[in-house]
Design goal:
Layout (H helix, E strand, L loop, with lengths): L1 H48 L21 E10 L3 H14 L3 E11 L5 E12 L3 H8 L4 E11 L1 H26 L4 H33 E9 L1 H8 L2 H65 L2 H4 L1
Parallel strand pairs: 1-5
Antiparallel strand pairs: 1-4, 2-3, 3-5
Helix pairs in contact: 1-4, 1-5, 4-5
Length: 310
C-alpha cells in the first residue's frame, strides 16, 4: 500500500509543476508580447527584403529579356588645325549648336628649339548621344583628323538591376511606414525607424547610381586634341636633330634655373660680406697686437725674479 502511495505522489508532482509553469507563462506573455511583436514585425519585413533582387534578363527580377538596350558612348579625336585658338572657338560654338556643353578646356603654349611658341589644346565637349555621329562629321570641316576612337559600353544590365532594386526598396519602405503607424511601444517604433532609415539610405544611393547611368547613356563626351602642323612635325622628328633640340632646351632651362637661384642668393651674399669682412679684419689686427704686448711683460717678469738678482 505504501508503494502505491509513493507512485501516486511521484506522478502528481510533475503534473502540478507543468500546470503551474503554463500558468506563469500565460501570465507573463502579455508583458513580453510588445518586444516580441516589434522584433517579429521588423523580422518579417527584413525576411521579405533582406535580399534585394538582382535583375537578370528572363528571370523575372524586375525586367524581361526584351528590355531596351542602354549604350554609353564616348569618342576621342586628334585634330590638326592652322590656328588652335580659332578652332577652340569653333568647337565651343559647335557644342552649343548640338545641344551640348564644353566640360573641359586646356590650352598650353610651349617654345620649340627655334624659340617659336607652339600652342596645343585639349577640349572635352559633351553632346546628346544621338548627335555624336553628326558632331564627329562636323569636326572634319575644322581641320585634319589624325586619329579617332569611338568606345561603346553596354550598361543595360546595370540600368535594369538598379531600377529593380530601387523598386523593391520603395515597396519595403512603404510597408515599414505602415507598420510604424501601428507601433504599440517605443521599443517597437525605434526598431522600425532604424530599419526604415537603413532602407531609405540604400534607396537614395541607388537613385544616385541610376541618375549617373542615365547621364552616361544620354550624353556622349568627345575628347578633342588640337595641335598645329608644326607641333606634329616636331613630335615626329627622329634621330640626332631631335636629341640635339632636346639637349639645347634642357641646357636653356637649366641655365635659367641657375641664374634664378644666383639672383635670389646674391643680396644675402652682399649683406654677409658687408658684415663679415670688417669683423675678419678687426680680429686679424687684434691677433697681431696680443703677442707684442705679452713679450715685454715676460721680459719684465724675468728681470724681477730672485734668481736674476743673485
Amino acid at each position: 500500500m505504501s508503494t502505491l502511495r509513493r507512485i501516486g505522489i511521484a506522478a502528481v508532482v510533475p503534473l502540478v509543476l507543468v500546470v503551474g509553469g503554463c500558468s506563469a507563462v500565460g501570465a507573463s506573455q502579455p508583458a513580453a508580447g510588445t518586444a516580441e511583436q516589434a522584433n517579429g514585425r521588423a523580422a518579417d519585413v527584413t525576411a521579405e527584403d533582406s535580399s534585394v533582387p538582382q535583375a537578370k534578363p528572363g528571370e523575372g527580377g524586375g525586367y524581361s529579356g526584351t528590355v531596351q538596350v542602354q549604350i554609353a558612348r564616348t569618342a576621342s579625336v586628334g585634330l590638326t588645325v592652322s590656328d588652335v585658338e580659332a578652332a577652340a572657338t569653333k568647337l565651343r560654338a559647335l557644342a552649343t549648336a548640338m545641344g551640348g556643353v564644353v566640360t573641359t578646356e586646356n590650352l598650353v603654349s610651349r617654345v620649340d628649339a627655334k624659340g617659336i611658341s607652339i600652342p596645343t589644346s585639349t577640349m572635352v565637349i559633351s553632346v546628346p548621344s544621338d548627335r555624336l555621329d553628326s558632331t564627329l562629321e562636323q569636326l572634319k570641316s575644322m581641320g585634319t583628323i589624325t586619329s579617332r576612337v569611338i568606345s561603346s559600353d553596354d550598361v543595360t544590365t546595370q540600368v535594369a538591376d538598379v531600377a529593380s532594386r530601387v523598386k523593391a526598396l520603395e515597396g519595403s519602405i512603404a510597408r515599414l511606414n505602415e507598420l510604424s503607424k501601428k507601433a504599440g511601444s517605443i521599443t517597437e517604433l525605434t526598431q522600425l525607424e532604424a530599419e526604415l532609415s537603413s532602407r531609405i539610405e540604400e534607396r537614395d544611393s541607388l537613385l544616385a547610381q541610376q541618375k549617373a547611368l542615365a547621364g552616361r547613356v544620354a550624353q556622349s563626351p568627345i575628347t578633342i586634341s588640337l595641335q598645329t602642323p608644326e607641333a606634329v612635325v616636331e613630335a615626329e622628328t627622329p634621330g640626332f636633330l631631335a636629341g640635339l633640340a632636346a639637349g639645347w632646351n634642357a641646357l636653356v632651362t637649366s641655365s635659367r634655373v641657375l641664374l634664378t637661384i644666383v639672383g635670389a642668393v646674391l643680396p644675402f651674399l652682399v649683406l654677409v660680406a658687408a658684415i663679415g669682412i670688417p669683423v675678419a679684419i678687426w680680429r686679424r689686427r687684434r691677433a697681431r697686437r696680443v703677442p707684442a704686448t705679452v713679450e715685454p711683460v715676460a721680459k719684465a717678469s724675468a728681470s724681477t725674479s730672485p734668481e736674476a738678482g743673485e
